Amino acid sequence: MIVDQKTKIFFPNLDGLRFIAFFFVFSEHILWAAVKTLNVQSPFWEHVLYTLFANGGLGVSVFFVLSGFLITFLILKEIEVRGKLDIKAFYIRRFLRIWPLYYLVLIFAFYLYPFLISFIHPNPDVFGDRQIYYFTFLSNFDLIHITTEGLKGSFLTGVTWSVAVEEQFYLIWPLLFYFVPKKYFISIFISVILISLSFRCLHLNEPFVLYFHSLGVSSDLAIGGLAAYLSLNSSVFINYFKNTSVRKRIVIYISGILYVLLSGYFFNVIVSTLIDRLVTSIFVAWIIMDQNFCNSERLKLSQFKWISKWGIYTYGMYLLHQIALLLVLNTYQYLDIEAVSFWQKLLKAAIVLFLTFLMSYISYNWFEKYFLNLKKHFAYFTKN
Questions:
Q1: Parallel, antiparallel, or unpaired: how do β-strands 9-10 and 2-3 relate?
Q2: How far is CA 101 from CA 191, 208, 224, 360, 369, in A?
Q3: Burial 38-59 (b: 16+ CB within 10 A, else e)
Q4: Are 183 and 79 spatial neighbours (Cβ–Cβ below 8 Å)?
Q5: Domain assignments of the chain as residue spans, ordered by start
Q6: Do the beta carbons of residue 185 and residue 154 sit within 8 Å?
Q7: What is residue 3's three-state secondary structure?
Q8: For residue 383, what pLDDT is reported?
Q9: CA 20 → CA 11, 13, 59, 296, distances in Å?
C-alpha cells in the first residue's frame, strides 16, 4: 500500500489482479469458442480447460472480493482518521466512477445499436430484457428471470449484472458502518457471510439464482471487506502476511490454484455449490493481502508492468468487450468471413481483444477521466 502526501491510498499490485479477473470473463465470452474446437477427449483435461477458459464466474468473484476489500478499507480508514464517514461524498464518488460509462453502454445497447442494425436487418432479434431493471441497477434479477424462463437476452447488457450487484452493495454497505458502533463492526462481516451461505443452502438446486442473486454472491464482498478490517485492526493478522516466507507463499498459491482447477472435478455438485465460492473467495482475499502487505517483492503482480498498466482500464474493458465482439461479428458477416478452425477463432478472439483494449483506452482517457477528475472534489482518501 502507498499513501502519499495528499492522502492518496494506492495498492500497486491490485491492477494486475484486476486484469487477470477481466481476462477470465473475456476468455469465457470469446476465447472459449476457440478452445472448444480442440475436442479434447479426456474428461479430466476437458474439465481443466473448461475451468481455465470458460470460468468467467471466477473473474467476477475476484472483482467482488477486490471491491469489498477496497471499499471497506477506504471506509474504515476514513472513519479512523476523521472519526466518521461522509456518506454523501461516498455516494457521489461511486456515481462518478460507475454511472457515466454504465449508462453510455445501456444507451448504445438499447437504443443506438437497434436503430443502426435496423438498416441492415429489417427484422432484428427481439430480446426479453426489461430495460427498467438495467437503468435501476437491478439487471442481475432480470437475468434470473431471463435464464429461468428460457428467454433470449441481449449479450450487450448481460455483463451489467455484476455492476448492479456492486451498486446494490455500495448503496447499503457504508450505511452499516455509519450506524453500527465500531465495536460491532466485525459482526457486519460475519452476519453477511452467514446470510449469504444460508441463502445458498436454501437455493441449492437453483443455479441461476445462486449465480446472479445479490445474496448468493454477497459473501465475496464481505470476505474482501473482512480482510480489509483485519488488516487495519489486527497486528497478528497483518504481521502474518508481512513475514510469510517465499516458499510458504508459493505453496499456498499452488494449492489455491489447484483447488480452483480441480475441485469441481473431484467434488459433487452440492459440495461445489456450498463450499467452492467460500473457499475461492478466501483464497482471493489471501492473494490480495499477500500482494499488498508481504515484505518480499517476489511474486508481486506489479512486476508484470504490462498487465498492471492495463489493469487501470478493466472497468471499461469489462463493459465494452461484448460491444467489441459485436462489431467484429458484424464485420465478419458483412465480409462473408467464416471462423471455423481453432486458429481462425483464435485470430477473431485476438482482434476482439485488441479492439477492447482500444475502446477502453479511448473511453478512459476521453470520457471516464472527466468524471474521475470530479471525484477529487469529494474525496478524502482516493485511489487509482
A1: antiparallel
A2: 33, 26, 25, 10, 11
A3: eeeeeeeeebbbbbbbbbbbbb
A4: no
A5: 2-378
A6: no
A7: strand
A8: 47
A9: 16, 12, 7, 21
pLDDT in tens, 224-265: 999 999 999 999 999 999 999 999 999 999 999 999 988 877
Does the CA dihedral 358-382-305-30 come out positive or negative?
negative
State residue 8 phi and psi, 5-degree precision. -95, 120
At 187, is the secondary structure helix, strand, or coil? helix
DSSP-derived letter for residue 382 is: B
Q: What is the mean pLDDT of residues 62-83?
A: 95
Cross-strand partners of 8: 382
pLDDT of residue 222: 98
CA distance 373 to 96: 9
C-alpha 180, offset from chain centre: 28
**∠ CA 177-178-183 to the nearest 5 degrees?**
55
Of all residues in the chain, the percent with pLDDT exceeding 70 is: 93
The burial of 150, by beta-carbon neighbours within 10 Å (0-12 exposed, 13-18 middle, 19 or more buried), is given as exposed
Number of residues written out for the chain: 384
CA-closest candidate to residue 138, choices 154, 162, 155, 156: 162
Among 286, 294, 285, 298, which Cα is nearest to 242's?
A: 294
Closest CA to 209 of 160, 273, 132: 273
> What average pLDDT does the segment 55-60 reach?
94
Q: Say how far apart CA 207 and CA 150 lie, in whole Å.
A: 14
**CA dist 40 → 8, 37, 202 (Å):** 49, 8, 36
Angle at 271 between CA 38 and CA 70, to 5 degrees: 85
